[in-house]
């Protein structure tokens, strides 16, 4: 198989962080008029997430949900770390396989697949795939010789930010019928999957779903199936600025797994995290391209006396909801910027709105926030922008997607290579993975970068 693993990234030199690269790029861009929006992605952050995952969920193998962010650099890094992949389409399967990932590290986790794409999976050795209906079973029976089917069950995701069980997942009461039909069709059902909804806010949903999965395993056993795969889906937070932290969720999941699927049950447990791995690795930097000052008529008359907020400011920036901020529409995201120029302690703040660059009135990033009086050419920084952003952005109105500058510290890069070649070593200390900028390189994730950098960041 032809494998292409190359992607470009810069090494961080000792003592510097991805945030220093943001500053460097802002300084470089500020010297010209081309102040395009850009991302800095710290691939070392993905490594840290992986270490955190293995510590918190030692029994659960992550199959990264490619839909969340299909950047080659991200997928290659995760492939080097040995994760599996949740693919929803032929193109995602192609991407993952182009990196040399073995088909048994792929689950085709889309319960409603196009026939031609099931045939593609069959021809390319991808066997694990989900289903939640009889029609899907019949399609698979016709188009795939060796499918290993996973029954996706519905969950109570009413408290999740993005609900998925409104669309996918068989209700518990339908499962026996589906398993019986699968048996009639001569299909192999190897396990159960679920998704508690993306942005899970109630860890007990996992508890209930794991218990439900146990029921379906028992049904399967009664029908002569010997199921050995439990897939607990996604729903894990991508950063720590959320109410329900990752470890609070895993503290509920682990005892539940031990109760319903103890280690000696020989059930392999996988998950499909997306947001968890990539959200915090990406910082988006946008530039103010236009501004309007809306005077409040009544306040305006008092202006000289009060000197307080008598106006609303409208800032227009060079990325919007048709681009990276599609997450506002599709992922229910609330994006708030931090300021590049730190405000003075006594700086007056104004009620502001922030708008994207397209001609559509829908293209609004922030409806209301307080910001100082900034100028065209100033920068705004949005953290935690790696999940469901670049993957679904368009170039509507001719606005191009921001460039992404990938960075990684040398210790992080070496650690990734060590894991790739020798497997997961004894738990690493995160402190040995300090980020640091240095030189631009061209790395493959499989070999030492060869092109040294021209300019150091410092
Ligand atoms: C089937 C499936 N698996 C995994 C994910 C990833 O979810 P998350 O980003 O919440 O981890 C999704 C997201 O929509 C999904 O549909």
UniProtKB/TrEMBL annotation:
Catalysed conversion reaction: L-ornithine + H(+) = putrescine + CO2
CDD domains listed in its UniProt record: PLPDE_III_ODC
BP GO terms, sorted: putrescine biosynthetic process from arginine, via ornithine
Sites of N6-(pyridoxal phosphate)lysine modification: 67
Annotated EC: 4.1.1.17
Gene Ontology CC terms: cytoplasm
Residue positions of the active site: 359 (proton donor)
Residue span, Orn/DAP/Arg decarboxylase 2 C-terminal domain: 38-386
Pathway annotation from the record: Amine and polyamine biosynthesis; putrescine biosynthesis via L-ornithine pathway; putrescine from L-ornithine: step 1/1
Main enzyme class: lyase
PROSITE patterns: ODR_DC_2_1 (PS00878)
Gene3D superfamilies in the record: Alanine racemase (3.20.20.10), Lyase, Ornithine Decarboxylase, Chain A, domain 1 (2.40.37.10)
Family, similarity comment: Belongs to the Orn/Lys/Arg decarboxylase class-II family.
Protein name: ornithine decarboxylase
Organism of this sequence: Sphaeramia orbicularis (orbiculate cardinalfish)
Protein encoded by which gene: odc1
